[in-house]
Specification:
This protein is mainly alpha-helical. It has five helices and no strands.
């Protein structure tokens, strides 16, 4: 578990975006975002896309960094 959760935690903390603010922007419960953030549940592929869209609305740099971190970890796993 955790590629998206790890990237999400890093980005939210770095850019000062609260879990609640992301949840409201995405239209999901704060508990859902909290589960991703704490890596107790991985988001589905569709949710990862929605995370990127929501982060883009909140802070374009945060969205870009989330994608970079998420893809970097994915490529590192293949090695």
């Amino acid at each position: 578990m955790g590629k998206a959760g790890t990237a999400l935690r890093q980005v939210l903390e770095k850019y000062g975006i609260s879990q609640n603010r992301l949840a409201v922007t995405m239209g999901v419960s704060r508990n859902t975002v909290n589960q991703w953030f704490n890596e107790t549940r991985d988001p589905l592929a569709e949710a990862v896309t929605e995370i990127v869209k929501a982060l883009h609305k909140l802070d374009e740099s945060a969205a870009k960094e989330f994608v970079e971190l998420y893809l970097k970890e994915s490529f590192e796993d293949e090695r």
